[in-house]
Amino acid sequence: APVMAIVGTPNVGKSTLFNRIVGQRLAIVEDRPGITRDRIYASTEWRSRSFRVIDTGGLELGQVDAIATRIRAQVELAIDEAEVIVFVVDGVVGLTSADEEIANLLRRSGKPVIVAVNKLDRAERNALAYDFYGLGFDKTIGISAEHALGIGDLLDAVFDYFPPASTDLDQIDEDAIKVAVIGRPNVGKSSLINAILGEDRVLVSEVAGTTRDAIDTAFTMDETRFVLIDTAGMRKRGKVYEATEKYSVLRALRAIERCDVAVLVIDADSGIIEQDKRVVGYALDAGKAIVVAVNKWDAIEKNGKTAQEFEKMIRSHFPFLSWAPIVFVSAKTRQRVRRVLEIAAEAAENHAQRIATSTVNTIVQEAVAMVPPPTDKGKRLKILYATQVAVKPPTFAIFVNRAEMMHFSYERYLENKLRESFGFLGTPMRILIRERN
Ligand code: GDP
Question: Which CDD domains would you find in this protein's record (predicted)?
């Protein structure tokens, strides 16, 4: 799908615009401390066309760069990654010298640039945006990200610069299971991908070149079709992938956004570090199915309990991943490489699973009969009914008389009951509590 990037100086409203375009995502009920909620990459739709949005300003990697360096990095990312660039400026403050600098960088890119003059809350938005026409970009549109004004016009303008829809890989290979192999550098991602594609029964059917240097590899194993997302630099020892940290984070995020299942590769030899948690946090936030592959299993000394001990260690580092299957692999000896794919296929199936409302209600009613809902001041929470409202990941709405009476622990109990019944191995689940009188 095509990519639109949002660039601009601090405080012009980039993130507000991003959220406005991407829309309110389903509330994540589960609280997972230490996991970032900020997303800089998201998929959305306009006029039935999927596209992806990057909020380059949200790309905060923790280093204390000068603002100028950060902005330059943003613009470079946008230029590399996007089909269309939306350059956000502040319509109240007016044109600043920092805007001019960004404009210079953008002009040299040759990419289509649309100027979004933000914070114009009145009807005569486009007239107020007049100051910015002088920048000479393809289009200038007055908007208010906060009040949702002019957003449709902006997206229409963006849309005009998207390439024809038929070139989207996402649309060509809809049924294939999209797998992203993720993990910090040197855990063996490239080796694992090469091992997968070198398997006897794996037929690499095509190498679909998408935009720029992102390469997806399509293959079939035992009649199941897979697409490995963004294998650029992984199949050869090129390492385009991890050229710079900011770039690799963005690459990883994009791969995650596009996948069904993320295979998180962990290094058995060096163990789990903070960076592993950050990587998996992105996949969790995006609601993807996750399989943990503990690689370099050949390289460590083992006794009868090693796998068990590893599993325990992993579960304690990733308590929010209790549902994710763990496979011990070696890209080097190819031990259980096929198993990773089998499990990924199963996780993808669960991720897309749809359960009939009557079945969901039977389970929930049984659960309620077994453990009654919480009470407050003598009144008991009533669970009215439940239904699945979305797939990828399976998302359930539970309708109750008073939402504030729902306890986290009771919600968790219901989630566990649903999990037990439907076996959502490898997929996260979401529960929304909705009030109904
Ligand atoms: P990436 O950065 O995650 O793509 O990691 P690479 O695939 O480049 O691997 C990093 C290093 O780990 C290389 O030196 C590999 O040869 C080594 N390596 C990868 N997989 C295995 C494995 O299963 N066993 C052993 N012993 N070494 C491995």
Answer: EngA1, EngA2
